[in-house]
Amino acid sequence: MKYVKKWPWMALALSVTALTGCFDGTEDANEQTSTSSATQGDRIKLAMLLTPRTGLSPLSDDAFKFSRWSVGETLVFLDKAGNLQPSLATEWEQLTPNDWRFTLRDGVMFHDGTQLTPNAVANALRTAANASPKPRILDGVSWTVKTDGDNAVIVSSTEPDPLLAQRLTSPQLTILAPSAYAENGTIDPENTGTGPFRLVKLNGSSTATIDRFDGYWGEKAQAPGIDVSFVPDGIARASALRSGEADIVEAIPVSQAPLLDPDMIREVPMPRTNTLYLNTQNGVMTNPGMRAAVRDAINRKQLVDNVYESRADIGEGLLGPALPWAAKLRQPVADPVMPAEPNGVTITLGTYTDRTELPEVAVYLAQQLTDAGFTVKQDVREYSQIESDALAGKFDAFILSRATMLDLGDPVAYMSSDFTCNGSYNLAQLCDPAIDQALQTASALPAGEARQKAIMKAENLILATDAAIPMLHERVIQGQSKRVRDAIADPRERLIISTRTHLASPEMME
């Protein structure tokens, strides 16, 4: 039987960077009217939280910088409501439960001057599918890609994948020019994207230079460029906004928000959970009773009130209030494990400094665990320096600020990555066949209530292990100067700068 699902191309050209509206894409860049002129002073100064960890490889979490800068694009993207919209592909059809056909947009140019072709798209997607390790969005997924005529590709999954098209919205599947991919396996993103801005130069882990790309297929960017600084220290980021050294700042620490003009703060709920991961394979936390003792020791309200100054929500589960359906479908864990007596046993608690609140969370949590009878040693470093140890299971407990909807617009990808036997980001070293089966069941269902119920069943099984203890759900606190116009405060943290983002002229500020 043939299954066909088709979404026709819309009358207006849409871009992943133009969620707030569309201009006429045929307008000449030199004739655009804007409150900003193409002067050096109108370049947007952006201070970002995380430094690049892989030289901006699109196969890593660095890829989300491509979408935040509007440098790279995917075949399709998710709008604010989580619905699929066209980007580099204008139509998509589900031919069979395993096969999807994507029709490519005409007239798209890569930043190196070459044209978007089916071969270029197939090359980018095959590179991701064959990578080791795979991008997180492809955890547990096996697929092949082939060209289909002069303007289409067919993506085929080994097993039916009802969310294959949604999977292709992940920035980890950004389409770069063939010139980006070297024979030795390295990927160079400079001047190889398709977005309205082009990455001119990445300067290690300190800065990046981005210019407007006037050959863009859609709406031309209003700002002439973006000057990016990577500033892991949250206090320094907030200071940069106050002093005018930055126009837009990611992740303002809650402790700094009261020190800023309220007009310079944008706060929105986000699907991000501050979670304590406990090591189920090595050390003290292999004992379920010890994990239960940690669970019962945590005072979530103290963390929310004292560390986050009430700019967060108490964690009731892995999925927070940004997904309203989760609370409605959540069931209490049946027969939770009884806590054991710690009796002074020593545990190592790790976290990282890149998110300013986490070291303070660690201090409060260490005291709570000490009061419960544990002896706690803390290890706090920059994320780039601690990630490999965390993934290797070198901590008894690890505090992580985790985005639960970053990849797919659906929490199955996050849960599979973090809590299945073969998950690529399994900090808890958890391996439970029942959880794997529950997530496999959820992944096979189409979007809708049945899938949501299956997801919450998997959440219940995960919470029952006490391998991951949700503490609180965070909010986006983004800072921007009063000159900034049309920046995006995105709960999913995929977007910041769009084609419409620009700086108002000083005359407009008077």
TrEMBL record:
UniProt domain Solute-binding protein family: residue ranges: 84-425
One GO term (biological process): peptide transport
Pfam families reported for this sequence: SBP_bac_5
Cited InterPro entries: Peptide/Ni-bd, SBP_5, SBP_5_dom
Keywords on record: Signal
Domain of life: Bacteria
GO annotations of cellular component type: ATP-binding cassette (ABC) transporter complex; outer membrane-bounded periplasmic space
Protein name, UniProt field: Peptide/nickel transport system substrate-binding protein
Signal peptide: 1-20
PANTHER family recorded: MONOACYL PHOSPHATIDYLINOSITOL TETRAMANNOSIDE-BINDING PROTEIN LPQW-RELATED, PERIPLASMIC BINDING COMPONENT OF ABC TRANSPORTER
GO molecular function, one term: peptide transmembrane transporter activity
